[in-house]
Design goal:
The protein is mainly alpha-helical. It is built from six helices and four strands.
């Protein structure tokens, strides 16, 4: 096994270290929110990319770690995303419903003698959930593409 040597000029190393040191700032949560609010006023909107590119702001992952989600941090500064993100809040509940349905279906298949469904001694059942928005009608085809339904 050969050791690999990576050579870099001292100036590149120092420039990288400076960026890391400038990015690493210990801030209170109140100061993090104040800076986020100023970024919103200056940029007119917020996104992970804007947060990560704004000098003086921690990365978007730091906001998630401190506040639980970017949406929560946004709400604490009085900013509401224009996107409907209700599905994010209900995602875990629907995952639980799916798991329960899969268990029930598997149990019923077993009761009905569904031995032909076994692969390596296990019944494999896959379920999918589709999001529905009131007023929209779509037909989903086998290839995963969809068209407006007539």
């Amino acid at each position: 096994m050969r050791a690999v040597s990576i050579r870099s000029s001292n100036s590149v190393f120092l420039a990288g270290r400076k960026i890391i040191e400038e990015r690493r700032v210990d801030l209170t949560e109140e100061e993090m929110l104040a800076r986020l609010r100023r970024a919103l006023v200056k940029k007119g909107r917020l996104s992970p990319r804007i947060i990560n590119k704004t000098v003086g702001l921690p990365s978007h992952n730091v906001y998630i770690a401190h506040f639980g989600s970017l949406r929560k941090a946004y709400s604490l500064i009085g900013h509401a995303s224009q996107r409907n993100c209700d599905y994010i809040d209900s995602r875990q509940a629907w995952a639980n419903v799916l798991a329960n349905l899969a268990k029930q279906l598997s149990t019923n298949v077993e009761k009905l003698g569904g031995r032909n469904w076994h692969v390596d001694g296990v019944v494999n059942i896959f379920l999918r959930v589709a999001r529905w928005t009131h007023g929209e009608r779509r037909t989903i085809h086998r290839d995963g593409l969809f068209n407006d339904a007539a």
